[in-house]
Fold this protein.
Amino acid sequence: MPSRFPLPPGSMIGVIGGGQLGRMLALAAGRLGFDVTILEPEPDSPASRVAAHTLVARYEDPEALQALAACDVITFEFENVPAAVVERLETLGALAAPGRLPLATAQDRVSEKEFFREQGIATADFAAIAGAADIASALPRLGQRALLKTRREGYDGKGQTWVEGIADAQAAFARIGGKPAILEAAVPFVREMSVIAARGRSGEIACYPLGENRHEAGVLRTTLAPARVSDATREQAIAIATRTLEALDYVGVMGVELFELEGGDLLVNEFAPRVHNSGHWTQDGCEVDQFEQHIRAVAGWPLGKTNALAEVEMTNLLGAEADDWRTLAADPSARVWLYGKREARAGRKMGHVNRLRPLEG
Ligand code: AMP
């Protein structure tokens, strides 16, 4: 059977999820001549307003999945898609990229950490917590102060809490309803960084320069890229990303969140099997940004260049900050990206701004 790849322009790309990442994927796909179908339960979503078609339905909806399966390839803008949805799409003959393995691995913090451990990639020490007894045995080993996170469905610092001592940890575990959790040792990092990496259908890999990330209240606030790092640190990040992409037989763009320790060694925090907020700087700092790169990869096109053309500071616009669009529009140093969300709830990601400076030396 002749390969369906590379997909010709005019092909239909299915995207599960209709948020800002889906919107920017649809814009990038449109630039390359593709059409996009979004599957999203909410009407009037950010992605639906720039995509050719939208299926407004639950992710598990059988009719919607039947319609989505007609797309030439299907991808995701968020990782918490139920595994059953991907299985159903595959049964219907559809091709999903990234596939089931990366999604399943990233959806569960314990399987994710075990995966990294199997690959010889360093992470924080951790223990799976199924009951109060696990806390009593794990906490002394992890140090008295540790981070308790739900195994599933945590993002932007949600579903996690610092604990100090066994009684405190057990109370926190009760507060999350005794849901399966992970307890992580506190990492004494000096910086948080990330690497956005891509793997194409022929197995080629391309990594963008590292970004340095600052969070506020668990939410990404700024990314500065390229981060100033030593060659050794950069090489470590590339080796981590390469190993992860290859072990998962990954196709598409992935974001890998890293902790830098004193001295430059890296630990992995987690990976996101999708385009990533900390990669938005590439939209104005690189010839081919992470969104086009992802579309290229899933469509079986060659990957684009990943070198930086400028130094970029990306700042997220949260909640009412995007109401200040007049000031941003009048600021010649600001490249403004707005997501078209109707409601500016506190802390909600409404847009971002990239500010460029010439690359140093
Ligand atoms: P996460 O939801 O795992 O991405 O964690 C959100 C944020 O919590 C990270 O960006 C870090 O700032 C912090 N964090 C997560 N895990 C650890 C850890 N093991 N030690 C110290 N800080 C952490």
The pocket of adenosine monophosphate is lined by residues 124, 147, 154, 157, 160, 184, 186-187, 192, 215, 218, 257, 269-270 (CB under 6 Å).
